[in-house]
Amino acid sequence: MNTLLKQTLTVSILSTMIASTAFAAPAEAPPAFVKKVADGLISRLKADNAKLKTNPALAKTIVRQNLDPYIDSQAFTRIVMGTYATNQNSSAAQRAQFEKNFRETLIENYGSAFAKFSNQTYTLRPYKDTGSKNPVVTIDFNNKGEKIPVSFQLVDKGTQWKVRNINVSGIDLGLQFRNQFAATVKRNGGNLDKAIANFKPDAEAAVNK
Fold first, then answer.
1. Is 16 part of a structural domain of the chain?
2. Does residue 123 contact residue 149 with C-beta atoms inside 8 Å?
3. Residue 5 lies inside a defined structural domain of this protein
């Protein structure tokens, strides 16, 4: 095969790959995606309700399998690290370590919360497409007669939506976790490595603030 033909084929293949990536879009509408995630998570919690009463740690496994795959942890990390997420204020290794720690502690946070409310139901609020690149879908969890609104801010990852931030009862968790992390950095004398190692996002404290 001559060089010109090789180059032509290479350009053709790359163009096809780029085009398919550029026009890829989630097959589901935002509310359908959130409903799918919520239904899967709640169905699993209900199915294992009896086990959760004797083994609350099981909730972490359920969250890891049914919620974690749909979280854009990189976007969440950038929100929470704030100014520390830039190349000037942190290294790639530090950001990767923060994301790893943050993801695991989030699973622990949400696992503990869902273990308490394994029989809850929810209603999906009417969705209005505003054309935003980060659509928001809100559901109301029914916890013993009390409605708890939870809004999921999404991001288009090409083939599916992912959750980049969560708002509970009007409280922006990304922003609250950012404040918690900034306080952790301050407590550790500005040492970013120590702050990353010691940071434990507290969803309950953020919501009850």
1. no
2. no
3. no
Could you tell me which residues come within 8 angstroms of residue 82 by beta carbon, excluding any fewer than 6 positions away?
A: 178, 181, 182
Give me the count of residues in the chain.
209
Q: What is the CATH number of the domain that holds 161?
A: 3.10.450.710
Q: How large is the greatest C-alpha to C-alpha distance in the chain, in angstroms?
A: 73
Measured from the Cβ of residue 165, the count of other Cβ atoms closer than 10 Å reads 22
Per the structure, how many domains does the chain have?
1
CB 41, CB 66: distance < 8 Å: yes
CA distance 62 to 60: 5
Give the global pTM.
Answer: 0.80
Range of the domain at 185: 26-127+135-207
Instruction: Catalogue the long-range contacts made by 145-149 (C-beta closer than 8 Å, 24 or more residues apart).
Output: 149/125
What is the CA 53 to chain-centroid distance, rounded? Answer: 26
Tens of pLDDT, residue by residue, the chain (209 residues): 454 434 443 333 333 333 333 445 688 999 999 999 989 988 888 888 888 888 888 888 988 899 899 999 999 999 999 999 999 999 999 999 999 999 888 888 777 776 666 567 889 999 988 888 999 999 998 877 788 898 999 999 988 999 999 998 899 999 999 999 999 999 999 999 999 999 988 877 766 66
